[in-house]
Amino acid sequence: MDDRISAGPNSEGRLIRPYTMTGGRTGADQPYIALEALVCATPTGVRNKHQFRWEAARIIDLSRKETAIVEIAARLDVPIGVVRVVVADLAHRGAVQISEPPSDVPASLEGYTYTTLLQKVLDGIKSL
Amino acid sequence: MESRASRPRLTPVKIVVAGGFGVGKTTFVGAISEIEPLRSEAIMTQASVGVDELFANTGKTTTTVAMDFGRISLKNNLVLYLFGTPGQDRFHFMWNELAKGAIGAVVLVDTRRLDSCFAAVDFFEKRETPFLVAVNTFHGERQHSVAEVREALAVSPGVPMVYCDARRRLDVQAVLVQLVEHALARALEEVTAP
Questions:
Q1: What ipTM is given for this predicted complex?
Q2: Measured between alpha carbons, how far is A10 from B91 in angstroms, rounded to an integer?
């Protein structure tokens, strides 16, 4: 299978073609990461930031405060798939941690059930 | 010097805001979001249309789909993301991705263009995602009763229907409260079901 893809006609106007950032990878070989999954830079990631390419370094900067995949994509103005590829890479290298939404990963609920989570969300919205 | 970056402590959750093009989804999100609604893009290949995967690796042509979203920090270390679905019909393949793991969905309705939300109602019914119908009174009028709208949309009696002005924060908050209450009731039914 050919896992390369050109940035295509929709990326005109970008200074750097998105898939240049990912070395041509498209994300098909990467684990799924939810749009709202939160990315959090690790101390190792922050310390070694300069060893990464600029886009990865910017993701580390942005995720010093926990930030969702979709928000990183918006703030860096790159497609979501590109962020997934780079974040998966960073996670693999211990530079960031990813918090998947608990509704996607029931096992991660750690003792509190989905209904408890919903109750907390409800309380949270009510007290806004 | 170590930065503040350390261990993750927040839990992300999401709610989808669906409805036809121009019905006020981004207005709805913006009314309650703590950030200006942001837009991000996904690039889809033709080959992946209808597939629950962002990037198929066989496609020759690509298309870009944009979605708007906002964020609300909640107590108990929760962070709620609100996603507006891409309005155009040709982007419905993106909805699976958005609905995956969502607490529920708000189907925003403009009574002057009821047919524009049929697709959303169908989608969430089939997917069994908890949803409610919010009739946007953006234009001030309530020319249709909730019962009339319910009949026109043919939604089941169990689906909550409410009025809201998508520009008003309190209205939007009330809609979200009703949606999560509905999702909670559904989840409790499943827990207690024999």
A1: 0.87
A2: 15
